Amino acid sequence: MSNATPGADEQFCSSCGEVIKKEAEICTECGVRQSTPSSSSSKDKTSAALLAIFLGWIGGHHFYLGNTGRGIIYLLFSWTAIPALIGIIEGIIYLTKSEDEFQRQYVN
């Protein structure tokens, strides 16, 4: 997996994570056909970050991102301060990632 940051006309391969052209239908590194991103599968990183910061204590950001199991764990431990602290940290992490990196790591 490449540690390079994709340029304006590049993206990460959905399978191996190599940097490839956005127009590429097939990854030159692993040969996997790239799916066209649909608007229904992408999540807004700012929304996820705000949910993590303000509703992280009940796992709001995990429910938003489709991680229902992790959201339930946060909900079960919501009476402690642990999910709230982790939620704030996760919100800051979400905000520091690029949009492509966020989509690749947390959504796809």
TrEMBL record:
Main location: membrane
Domain of life from the UniProt record: Archaea
Compartments reported by the entry: Membrane
Transmembrane segments: 48-65, 71-95
Membrane topology: Multi-pass membrane protein
Domain TM2, residue spans: 42-92
One GO CC annotation: membrane
InterPro entries: TM2
Keyword entries, A-Z: Membrane, Transmembrane, Transmembrane helix
Pfam family, any one: TM2
Statement: the UniProt record of this protein carries the keyword Membrane: yes
Protein name in the entry: Zinc-ribbon domain-containing protein
